[in-house]
Amino acid sequence: MLVSLHVKNLALIQETEVFFGPGLNILTGETGAGKSVIIGSVSLALGGRADRDMIRTGAEYALIELVFALDKKEQADRVRALDIPVEEDGCVILQRRIMPGRSLSRVNGETVNGRLLKELSGILIDIHGQHDSQKLLKPKQHLEILDDFAGEEAAALKRKMKESYEAFRKTEKLLLESSMDERERERALSLARFEAQEIEEAQLREGEDDELEARYRKMTNSRRIAEAVGAAWELTGSESEGASSEAVGRALRELSSVSGYDDALAPLVEMLSDIEELLNEFNRSVSEYLSDLEFDQADFAQTEERLNLINRLKEKYGNSISEILRYQEEREQEIARLEDADAYRERLQGKLEEEKAQVEKLCGELSRVRREAGERLSELLIAALSDLNFDQVDFDVLLTKKERPASDGWDDVTFRISTNPGEPKKPLSEVASGGELSRIMLALKTVTAAQEDKDTFIFDEIDTGISGKTAWKVSQKLGLLAKTRQVICITHLPQIAAMADDHFVIEKNAKNGSTMTSIHEIKGEAVERELARMLGGDELTESALANARELKEMAENTKQY
């Protein structure tokens, strides 16, 4: 669950921190106080789009920190599977620093990218924004909801379906490409033969280009090499006046002539003798190198020509000899295919039929799983919608077959509903109002919560378009969900706020010429005053306070069941 939220220098927030409880956390406040900024900061921390305008005026950066407690072993294992360390106490600390031009995210001290944040978000939390209910108007969303509800059986079939469909499409493409007329085939065959023969005649050998480059480099720099090596030979030889070999020999003779007078000179004589021997050996090796340095001009021309040939082949067929040889192998396979085009197409056609049969088999299995899941979802959702003041509601999941399969099967899914007795069921996009969509989404969340590992649900104004008795029903449903999950909810309705296990007020105040948004928890009489404000307006009358107390008592009594 989400333990705490710390926000600094974000929009109108200078710095604030809030600690959430495990049940139903309610956030209330005047319109424009910054409630959505508080919840929006959670989305930002989890990789939402950020820009410099979000940084509070005068600040260098904005900072958001979330602390999650992983109470389930499965959840912790999934986080570790992302190579994210988890503290011994099960804590995950997520920080995002937003700066002009860039942002930096860390999880438990390690820097992470946006893709990883998105995957982590899918494990930790479910955020329902103000406009997310509109997604229910899109049939593509219905398919995703149904497949999520169907669980691992559908997920496994979809993985197999994707692999089979991609193989089918690849074979289909190869078959299409093979359907060329005779003139095109002869032209392609001629080109493939020419390219394969050109590489074959070159008789390339792995590593040959590196050897030739080294030899060519030595040949083109031979004069400079000869001058430098010759100078080294003269300076270390014994035939040149002032050479080091002559000097060392003279020094050895001088030292040897007096070594009999002091035993301590013997090691020095031995060392100098080794130096003279090593110098002479070096001089002989240099002399041999010089004699081998000479080369035939024809050898140079042959090396240069071979290198030019290899480089031309690299320009045409690959950046290395291994790539050129691989290209030759591909050309030879193409030649075999083109020479035996009819048999090749026949093999492809047979393979395509097999893969098509496999795709259709998986489509059928996936469709069966979806139909069964749709029946269960319809039954559960009708019950959940009835609890949300939908009288005599009827709902079903309609599956229709596409003209041809796709990577997710051949089903189009449509959620249909009838909210009036005797009226036929119609797609949600044709009959559902804004308030009805909000309740349908809440019903879906309560029904599908059991299929999700997430411990935290956030609802930003789930009460859109509802009031009165319906608002109380929504309040009860949120309270029910909060018995097994942490729920954080922004609301304008006192009926929903009264159900809070922990109540937070968001306020906007002007101080020292600056406007700031802050959040703090309220309890006892402060809760009653906030509910009275939501019920009656700016002036807190005794009757408004009495109504607030009654509303809170009703909510507390409801929680007992």
UniProtKB/TrEMBL annotation:
A single GO cellular-component term on record: bacterial nucleoid
Keywords associated with the record: ATP-binding, Coiled coil, DNA damage, DNA repair, Nucleotide-binding
Organism superkingdom: Bacteria
UniProt feature coiled coil, ranges: 310-372
GO molecular function list: ATP binding
Disordered as annotated region, ranges: 412-431
One BP annotation, GO: DNA recombination
SMART domains: AAA (SM00382)
Annotated InterPro entries: AAA+_ATPase, DNA_recomb/repair_RecN, P-loop_NTPase, RecF/RecN/SMC_N
AAA+ ATPase domain residues: 21-510
Family as reported in the entry's similarity comment: Belongs to the RecN family.
UniProt function note: May be involved in recombinational repair of damaged DNA.
Protein name per Swiss-Prot or TrEMBL: DNA repair protein RecN
Organism annotation: Candidatus Eisenbergiella merdipullorum
